[in-house]
Design a protein that fits this description.
Helix content: 55-70%
Order of helices and strands: H
Oligomer: single chain
Strand content: under 5%
Distance between the termini: 130 Å
Structural class: mainly alpha
Number of strands: 0
Largest sheet: none
């Protein structure tokens, strides 16, 4: 009995994790592909412009920078002058509108005082011409109480049997 007999299936060594690495690599590549496709669909035209500008910028960047800065300075000065003129005209218009608003406000306050004066003279003139009113108090009449029914009252809707009437 010193020898033991192994009857079960042979033991299989576990893998080193190569299958999990392959699945992880596949998932990462799938995510990168989806992100690249989304970026291409969303920003494809701009990506082409950026790459074409980057390739042509190296050769003509120095020449274009000097011409653009000279033209931009003269354009900037003319734009600054136009902006100053526009700002001055807007300031004049704003000042004129504020003066007109003040004039209208003064007119409204003058009319308001005239209306108040007219109402006070009208109120004092009408009360002086009218005799004092007599105060009379009227008391509402009370309704006579409703007579109570004699006899039994049916609450549930069932007919009541009339009690015998006493003989008179």
């Amino acid at each position: 009995m010193a020898d033991q007999i192994d009857v079960g299936p042979p033991s299989v060594p576990l893998r080193d994790g190569k299958s999990y690495k392959g699945i992880a690599l596949f998932v990462v590549l799938l995510a990168l592909g989806a992100a690249a496709g989304f970026t291409w669909l969303r920003h494809g035209d701009r990506l082409l412009e950026v790459t074409s500008l980057a390739s042509s910028a190296g050769s003509s960047a120095a020449v274009a920078a000097t011409d653009a800065s000279l033209v931009a300075a003269s354009d900037f000065q003319s734009f600054q002058q136009q902006t100053a003129e526009a700002l001055q005209s807007v300031t004049e218009l704003l000042t004129a509108q504020q003066a007109q608003l003040k004039r209208l406000s003064d007119d409204v306050s003058g009319l308001s005082t005239k209306i108040d004066q007219m109402q006070s003279t009208l109120a004092s003139g009408t009360t002086a011409s009218l005799p004092p009113a007599r105060l009379s108090v009227t008391v509402p009449r009370r309704k006579p109480p409703t007579p109570r029914p004699a006899g039994a009252i049916s609450v549930g809707g069932a007919p009541l049997v009339a009690p015998p009437q006493p003989v008179r």
